[in-house]
Request: fold
Amino acid sequence: MTGTPATFRIVTSAADISAAEWNACAGDNNPFTLHAFIRALEESGSAVAAAGWQAAHAVLEDADGGVLGIAPAYAKSHSQGEYVFDHGWADAFERAGGRYYPKYQMAVPFTPATGPRLLLKDAAFAPALIAGIEQFCARQQISSAHATFIAPEQVPLFDAAGWLIRHTEQFHWHNAGYGSFEDFLGNLASRKRKTIRRERREAAESGLRIVALSGADIREAHWDAFWEFYQDTGSRKWGHPYLTRAFFSLIGERMAERVLLVLAMDGDTPVAGALNFIGGDCLYGRYWGRCATCHSCTSSSATIRPSTTRSRTASPGSRLARRDRTSWHGATCLW
Reply:
């Protein structure tokens, strides 16, 4: 650290820190670490104690109370909604006579996207923030602390603190210099290329139109429709969707300029959609779905469309891309 006197505390709601102080640490590149996103998860009832996500954000402050760093984190009573499966760890811990839950989880709830887990005004504050988390967990007799989907540049910060570093993989899309969607399709295997073209042709022949909405163009009626799509996909794929209806209204109210909502319209009625978030250098595809009576190709077309629609704030690199196997990292500290 730089010699600046610092104090550590835990806050049980993102609302306990002003948006200005939070975002001064988070920056504006990653939409999921913004104050508006985290607060929407909590205020909507999506990430709350009753759902197994008790907010326990770590905060490092200077002598005047100014925020130097934040670690968005939760005391978890289960391992759901993390997209990292540590049930084997939990079982082994319990068999050895320990109590695995609650555990301390440094993550953005329900968001398997790589990003900073330490929101810092200066990287020099990382050791003090990590040490504060370790001391808090030890005092509270919490079994372990975990940071998942860590941005690569922050992995050394946890490594230097002696945390166990985990390595695994996910797929990211990177621009390969495609000048058009046809260029992109040309790089695919013949079977996949034919499938996408057929789905897009069938959607076009159905008379549907695709609209891309952002900012003030997104209305509550659009969120009502997308909520139904999200529920349909969640019930078929996950069994229990994590987000509440209120969450979508809150992000529409507080950060709509970072949202790209793509809808397939049958006349004036949305029948399928894909929700995307606009980052500083990429577009994050999050959720998709369709009405129960709609053909699956309609949902596929709405999902594909963002790759051919350049957001006004996304870089050209987010338009068309190549799927690459990419490592992501986690870090764990056990007591």
